[in-house]
Amino acid sequence: MMRHLSELREQVEVWRGVETKARETVELLDLAEAEGDEALAADVVADIDKLAGNVEGMELALALSGEYDRRNAILAIHAGAGGTDSQDWTEMLLRMYLRWAEKRDYSTTILDMTSGEEAGIKSVTVEVTGRNASGYLRAERGVHRLVRLSPFDAAHARHTSFALVEVMPEVESASEVNLNPDDLRIDVFRASSKGGQNVQKNATAVRITHLPTGITVSCQNERSQRRNKESALKVLEARLLVRQLAEEAKEKARLKGEHVSAAWGNQIRSYVLHPYKMVKDHRTGYETSDAESVLDGELDPLLSAYQKATLGD
After folding, report:
1. What is the CA radius of gyration of the chain?
2. pTM, to two decimals
3. Is 247 exposed, middle or buried (0-12, 13-18, 19+ CB in 10 A)?
4. Of 146, 233, 225, which Cα lies nearest the Cα of 185?
5. Mean pLDDT confidence for 17-32
6. For residue range 169-220, what is the model confidence (pLDDT) as tens digits?
7. Which of helix, strand or coil describes residue 247?
8. Are 237 and 226 in contact (CB under 8 A)?
């Protein structure tokens, strides 16, 4: 509660600062017009553009008002249909999200990763730590589709690859999920490197199965079995929280008489690199031809379009 109050106080101070800056900018604009000072006018225009960008970013932050939006996030990416191409696509998405997090000064920790036999990644789980990480990244949940000339095809033919992105808010209190130690089966094994070779003599990797639901999580990136167990439990709690929220949403939809499809099964976005370049979000209609920038972590315009489209949902 105290942290939430501190965050609200900080938001108020930021908006008051913007209000002061806007007032000063208007006064400078009046002065430039009165004196016909074109150099000052140019500076004021630049200040206005910067101020507008700041306000847009702050409005986006205000849109993140969900119960779990302010939390850290657990991000998981899984290769779909497409073999090696999809595994390579999964690695490209991982890089995209790591670059985006870096630009926002968020910290990231890879909790678990399974590499492909030839190239790429079969699946990866990442903890993203930073204010509103869960709120921003929830726009990424769903199936991501890539169209390109395959670097793994001798004929260099065009291939379509798919990857599933999951985003889960990090659990902050044990009371949020009902996790009975008696419901857990914990197995340990030796961590593997790219290609599956064992790289540790000791069994430090941990796999936890939640018996009532069948949910299984594993973590092997830490060199300590204890740390891997802690990370695996963190991911399991997040998955159970998402499952609980999905069941509650399903029950609400049933009471309303609505049909709700599984969100993770929807193709939310297409990334086309051949025969033309375009990234298009199918939920908002937002599209850009600068695919390279998006894949380099410039996700904010896409996230902003999603937040605006779902504001009030």
Report:
1. 23
2. 0.79
3. exposed
4. 233
5. 84
6. 999 888 899 899 999 999 998 876 554 444 455 678 999 999 999 999 999 8
7. helix
8. no
The CATH number fitting domain 175-256, selected from 3.20.20.60, 3.30.160.20, 3.40.50.970, 3.65.10.20: 3.30.160.20
At which residue do the structure tokens 């101070």 appear? Answer: 13
Can you tell me which residue has the tokens 């909790």? 111
Give whole-number Cα distances, 285 to 3, 64, 104, 300, in Å.
36, 21, 25, 15
CATH of the structural domain 73-171+260-310, one choice from 3.40.570.10, 3.30.420.40, 3.30.70.1660, 3.30.70.20: 3.30.70.1660
* Domain extent listing, the chain: 2-63, 73-171+260-310, 175-256
Residue 4: pLDDT band by 50, 70, 90 thresholds? low
Could you tell me if 19 and 58 are in contact, meaning their C-beta atoms sit under 8 angstroms apart?
A: no
Q: Rounded to an integer, what distance in angstroms lies between the CA atom of residue 135 and that of residue 73?
A: 8
Pairing label, strands 267-272, 142-149: parallel
Residue with tokens 């939310």: 268
Shortest CA distance to 20 belongs to which of 40, 57, 56, 47?
A: 47
Report CA torsion sign: 21, 27, 33, 38: negative
pLDDT in tens, 141-157: 999 999 999 998 878 78
Cβ proximity of 100 and 297 under 8 Å: yes
Decide: 179 and 240 in contact? Cβ < 8 Å.
yes
Q: Is 184 exposed, middle or buried (0-12, 13-18, 19+ CB in 10 A)?
A: middle
- Dist CA 128 CA 260 (whole Å): 28
Q: Identity (one letter) of the amino acid at 166? A: E
